[in-house]
UniProtKB/TrEMBL annotation:
Gene3D superfamilies: Nucleic acid-binding proteins (2.40.50.140), Winged helix-like DNA-binding domain superfamily/Winged helix DNA-binding domain (1.10.10.10). Belongs to the replication factor A protein 2 family. Residues 1-10 have a biased composition (Low complexity). Keywords: DNA replication, DNA-binding, Nucleus. It is found in: Nucleus. It comes from the Eukaryota. One of its GO terms (molecular function) is single-stranded DNA binding. Residues 1-22 are annotated as: Disordered. GO terms for cellular component: chromosome, telomeric region; DNA replication factor A complex; site of double-strand break. Its main location: nucleus. GO terms for biological process: DNA replication; double-strand break repair via homologous recombination; nucleotide-excision repair. This is Replication protein A C-terminal domain-containing protein. Residues 158-249 form the Replication protein A C-terminal domain.
Length: 258
């Protein structure tokens, strides 16, 4: 199973069945940064990297042919390795549709989504798409891809423990560290979130733990009377694509916290 910038196993011992392992992998939300060519050149029905299934991907590219229809928006995402079709389903309310993302054609965007295969071609079902205004983010994304690929190779060949923490990236005060490389990244404040939602997003964005922040650590930041509300908020952030789970269902990272 994959984690943003790296990979971990599903936690099953050697005695578990292959089917059970595959089902557990699919239950966990995970995000892996990739070049588009990784997706388009994969011949497997299910997108994998080194035999490991990838549920969700993170790509950065130039937005082309953004076409808005009644229930969906279609587009082409293009990076230096290739291009891929993508679909964003729009929420409708009677005769109106939800607000479109603030993206423009021929500009960089970041896309989080799942992979689908149709008529032999792979495409991306967009969970979230955001504009990129700072090219430092593009550079850092490429570093993340390189790290994820190297880590996956070593993991696939038994070169690393599957649960080894690799604190390769830490976001603090708008500065991204990758080894000795430091990149300034734009600070994003969640819009339209309730105070408790914004506080949890801030915690997730600023964690320096490669595996994200444990639920127990998040709960410790609030009064015990708020525990139920905190758990409900975490479920909401997962459902809305603001956060995702990593090594297990009790460790969280922010989707935008790069």
């Amino acid at each position: 199973m994959s984690v943003n910038g790296g990979f971990v196993n599903d936690g099953e011992g050697g005695g578990g069945s292959a089917t059970k392992k595959r089902e557990q992998v699919r239950r966990v939300q995970s995000v892996v940064p990739v070049f588009i060519s990784y997706i388009t050149e994969c011949s497997d029905e299910e997108f994998t990297l080194y035999g490991m299934p990838v549920q969700m991907v993170d790509i950065i590219g130039v937005l082309r042919n953004f076409d808005v229809q009644s229930t969906k928006a279609t587009c082409l995402i293009e990076d230096q390795s290739g291009s891929i079709q993508a679909i964003l389903w729009l929420e409708t309310d009677g005769d109106s549709i939800s607000a479109l993302p603030p993206v423009k054609e021929n500009c960089y965007v970041r896309v989080f989504g799942s992979i689908r295969t149709q008529d032999g071609s792979k495409m991306i079902m967009i969970l979230k798409i955001i504009p990129i205004d700072d090219l430092n983010v593009v550079t850092h994304h490429r570093l993340q891809i390189i790290h994820a690929k190297v880590y996956a190779e070593k993991l696939a060949t038994g070169g690393l423990p599957a649960t080894q923490p690799v604190n390769h990236a830490a976001a603090t005060n708008g500065t991204m560290s990758f080894g000795d490389i430091k990149i300034n990244t734009p600070q994003e404040n969640p819009h339209g979130l309730k105070p408790i939602q914004a506080k949890i997003m801030s915690l997730l964005k600023n964690t320096t733990n490669y595996m994200g922040m444990a639920k127990s650590e998040i709960l410790a930041q609030f009064d015990s009377a708020q525990a139920r509300e905190v758990r409900a908020t975490l479920d909401f952030l997962l459902d809305e694509g603001h956060a995702y789970t990593t090594c297990d269902n009790d460790h969280y990272k922010a989707t935008d916290g790069f």
